[in-house]
Amino acid sequence: MKNTAVFTFIAVLFLCFLCVPVGAVVLEVTFKGPVATTNPTKNTLTVDHPLQYGCSYPVTGVPVCSYTPVNKSALTGTVPDAAAFTVFRNGDTVIATSLGGSGETWISLAKLYGSRPNEELMTDIVGDISTIPPSSSAITLWTQQRSRTVRHVRAPRAQPCQPSSW
After folding, report:
1. Handedness of CA 97, 103, 109, 111 (dihedral sign)
2. What value does the CA radius of gyration of the chain take, rounded to a whole number of Å?
3. What is the per-residue pLDDT for 69?
4. pLDDT: is 56 or 14 the higher one?
5. Is residue 134 part of a domain?
6. Is residue 51 assigned to a domain?
7. CA angle 49, 78, 107 (to 5 degrees)
8. Would 56 be classed as within a structural domain?
9. For the chain, what is the domain count?
10. Are residues 74 and 86 in contact, defined by beta-carbon separation less than 8 angstroms?
11. What are the distances in angstroms from CA 121 to CA 45, 48, 52, 89?
């Protein structure tokens, strides 16, 4: 009788361990820096002197997010689309998000324009716009004393674009 109860208990415990849900998250890492090289034949883009995006969460107050230097002099990854080679040139400042670690596979690339770091505007995005950090995902157009935000909309067109509809 005791052996049956112990065996049943172990069997139930074993089944509980098998039924535990398993979850995993693929790491997305965002970097900022100038384009060092583009290589269409290898389908890669290299970011020189990358800065990594990250946030610190104080006990009180709001999170502080910024770009900090990393210990690599350059990061190379495959581009999300061949259109990146028509948009990005050597020396362009970009925000690049990689999937699964530092570099390797870029899932989004955003071209920045501006003379000062706090006044940079995004002019082009290739890849998944939702992976660009919130603090930099809005394209701000300055008009006099106020700003407007341009939203992205993911909706398929019912018909091809015609110049007359612009």
Report:
1. positive
2. 23
3. 93
4. 56
5. yes
6. yes
7. 90
8. yes
9. 1
10. no
11. 21, 20, 18, 17
